Write the structure tokens for this entry.
Amino acid sequence: MASQKRRALPLEERVQVIKSSERGDSFRSIAERLGVRRTQLQTTIKRKADVLSEFETENKPERKR
């Protein structure tokens, strides 16, 4: 198998992975769409609570950039 450089998923894409998984999409189809490996997606799902809480924290409306 050819080596593939790991691509870090931004927070928004990790949330999309979780939502796609909850809809019933396979890890394989999600991985192909995002250009990452299935194991990276499985790790994201395993850390689901952490990812979602981080997403909620970063998207507070009162926060100004």
